[in-house]
Amino acid sequence: MPLALLALAVGAFGIGTTEFVMMGLLPDVADDLHISIPSAGHLVSAYALGVVIGAPLLAAVTARMARRKVLVGLMALFVVGNALSAFAPDQHLLLAARFLSGLPHGAFFGVGAVVATGMVAPERKARAVSLMFLGLTIANIAGVPAATLMGQHFGWRSTFLAVSVIGLAAIASLVALLPRDDAQAPVVGLRGELAALKSLPVWLALGTTVAGFGALFSAYSYITPMLTDSAGYADSSVTLLLALFGVGATLGNLLGGRLADRSMRGTLFGGLASLAAVLLLFPLLMSTAWSAPLAVLLLGTASFVTSSPLLLMVMEKASSAPSLASSANQAAFNLANAGGAWIGGLTLAAGFGVTSPALAGAALAVLGIGVAAVAYGVDRRGGSVGGGRLVAAHVPRPAETAARH
Known about the structure:
globular
């Protein structure tokens, strides 16, 4: 695999760290800014809103720019957002800084995925994407716990300064390692990019992302009370147990990338079915202290098996605008985050028990299978599926797309 993928992984590591670290720092931020925990929780929402808005918007407006320059510019915006977060004097400016930090998130992964797939042979595209996402999953193992500890001992502002330094390292890596000749975007224009998102298969692929990852976040958003109230762990043990989720996500991401290069659709259906099965078993697995860590590990593995095939499927369905399509997939991921947490919360509010969000997640995973099946049927009627096997080779390289236009 090209060394340039390391530069994308460094950027993904920084983004993953700043996205999830706020959850662990909410009490510290609330205490320092003299606000309530629920008010501090809006800082998480502000980042997610930035991702949802920035992902398609920035991908569309930078459609004519060289992708290498776009990636460097996005990381520069990321550095500025996190630096402003570190120096924000009050809640309102911190909300604005968190929103700004979230803007480049989706576009970076979207454009990065196109660059990653353009640097490798067709039969290795899914693995290239999985290596870029490796930075995101490792952030959950090492970056988030380390950043949380730093914030707790040296103040939450130090965490965002450290993330800014990671962003600067990513910029240096991108400049040093990304080839110039492979980073030129096809000249399709804003109208051409948006037109690529009008097709039903694209929206079905995005719908599968929302349902599939909504299943994950329905359960994961409430994993802490499951571990403490159901499995009987102390609060102090939760951080270490959550690192197991990152380990599982890393394993699932690498496994999914390898399998998707053989059969993208088969990996997608298998991953969603595995996720549904794990979530159905959650109430049983969370009932004892010895099986709860296994549940957390399996949740990370099953959910991230689908990350590469989902992204590449969206890129294939919008082949004339892969940057915008893959960025829109990141927006769909964050909608899944918010929607899944909301649905899981409904089951708790209804009094169905502390593990009930996992069962709601299982239903969402089944819904994802249904949406993916509809997409498969549409492809069959359109003649774009051969033998039920969809491979990443259909994702165009930048040069190929430019030649067609």
